Amino acid sequence: MPEVQELVKSLADKYGRKRENLLHILQGIVEQERYLSDVALTEVARELDMSAAQVYGTATFYTFLDTEPRGKYVIRICRTISCDMKGKNQIIQAIEDTLKIKLGETTQNKKFTLLETNCMGWCHEGPAMLINDQVYTNLSVDKAMDIVTDYVKNK
Amino acid sequence: MTKNKLKRIDLIFHEDCECRQVLEKTFSRSNDEIINDILESGLKGRGGAGFPTGLKWKFTAEQPADERFVICNADEGEPGTFKDREILFKVPSKVFSGMAVCAKVIGAKKGYIYLRGEYRFLLPELQKALGAFHRDIKDLIDFEIIIQMGSGAYICGEESALFESMEGKRGEPRNKPPYPTISGFKDKPTVINNVETLVYAFMICKHGPLSFKELGTSDSRGSKVFSVSGDTPIAGIYELELGMSLEHFVEEFGDGDTKAVQVGGAAGFCVPRKKLKETIIGFEGVPTGGSMKVFNSSRSMYNVLHNYLEFFEEESCGQCTPCRVGCQQLLKGIEAVKKGEKKAIYLDQLLKLSETMKLASKCGLGQSVANSFSSIVDNFREEMIY
Ligand SMILES: Cc1cc2nc3c(=O)[nH]c(=O)nc-3n(C[C@H](O)[C@H](O)[C@H](O)COP(=O)(O)O)c2cc1C
Ligand code: SF4
Ligand code: FES
Description:
The complex is a heterodimer.
Chain A: H1 2-15, H2 22-33, H3 38-48, H4 52-61, E1 73-78, H5 81-85, H6 88-99, E2 112-117, E3 129-131, E4 134-136, H7 141-154
Parallel strand pairs in A: 1-2
Antiparallel strand pairs in A: 1-3, 3-4
Helix pairs in contact in A: 1-2, 1-3, 2-3, 3-4, 6-7
Chain B: H1 19-27, H2 31-41, H3 53-62, E1 69-74, H4 83-90, H5 92-106, E2 110-115, H6 123-137, E3 144-149, H7 159-166, E4 190-194, H8 195-207, H9 209-213, E5 223-230, E6 236-241, H10 246-253, E7 258-263, E8 269-272, E9 291-296, H11 301-315, H12 321-339, H13 346-360, H14 364-379, H15 381-385
Parallel strand pairs in B: 1-2, 1-4, 2-3, 5-9
Antiparallel strand pairs in B: 5-6, 7-8, 7-9
Residues 155, 173, 316-320, 323-324, 361-363, 365-366 of chain B line the site of iron/sulfur cluster.
């Protein structure tokens, strides 16, 4: 996959090839590809002259550095107590129904992945969710379905 | 009877900052004078642990080294805390200015803001504000701030885990001592402060230590930004004086049916209604990084505890056994009691386990699980069983 190779090389050129640059590079890959494939991880190890185990071990520590295939849009719904009290379960249910997937799954067209996440700092406006970096708060079932449907149709 | 409303303070978010002017004035004074002001103000860290900020700066400045760093902890992962986000969104140049003052005092040329991945949406505006700030202070000080993103790990808010993460490694806490003032980022003396602490330090430079010291109590000087959520009609961000009783807090923020308040997030303490009156919010009572969650009588405290334990179980870095296994066992344990698979007295064994975790865990995460565990189980034991 020469594409990933090029991406890793350009990120290493940009951030540097030292250990302290590793997270920047991994974050850069996730930003483009949404997850870290084995090919990408091996490539990073080669480029930074580290063992693949070290790279993998670091990546798997971080929730946002996914090593499993993810959709183009990763939806993360807050599961912590305030959002739970405000009905995050209904929101999850609504999105599951809209996208025809279960929590943790990716749609067949690889466009969406649905996940839960821990408190994301919007407890006063829960339930809250992230779609990639974008924040959505004060969700109702209708609002959540509208947002997701808009992504389905227009993005 | 009219209710006495808690006094609102307006230091942090107050707009007219004139950062450059304040920095010029501050930089014209000696490092000792600045440190003495911060010490005199009584400012303690707003990230949770409450270490005196002036001392932290002083120790770092005094530590012989060829390089020192100042780091702004913007990882804000404690459930129920969202004030650092608002500070960075509304008054970023005050945060940068606080870092610049610290940099001058300790002799740092580089500063970092470690921003949690969930706040990446803030990045474009922050970078813009940072560019303007760098241009504005270029002739005043040789100091550069770099923003580094986190990637979704609560433990990286713990200072030594944060250094590890910034060095490109797994965010696993280090042994202490040595403390960051001696050996922090890249093993150099490092000041790491919460976002809010840095802004207060800067406001003390602007208004003088007395204006800050006047607020609060002798153990908890000044004001604090609170993140209020849960069963309250007025959830949001409030800057209030420290040292108020929880009863006063609930009178103003509760919905009239408050059963308990969780102070300090999942790592904090649960205070039931009957103890609201005697409980002070501050370092002499229950300390808080700002998270205030209100629960009314419709809530199951079992669900609350279960939610917190799931959080800890997932966020434990797994490095040390008491915390890794302890979190799992506490979670399994309360589930077993609830299902009737274990007798109610099993809760006492779990309480002992949480005490052991407090003593034997390597970092603040494992050490603080007992706070919410024992305060919820002790005060709402019947809800854990039936
Ligand atoms: C598990 C854990 C998570 C923490 N998360 C944060 C955080 O998100 N933000 C923060 O400022 N401090 C956090 N802290 C506290 C820091 O280790 C450190 O004490 C603090 O940043 C010091 O700043 P201060 O003196 O200004 O409070 C955390 C501590 C622990 C044990
Ligand atoms: S107490 Fe928990 S989070 Fe801290 S080092 Fe041990 S396992 Fe990791
Ligand atoms: S509990 Fe959901 S954002 Fe904090």
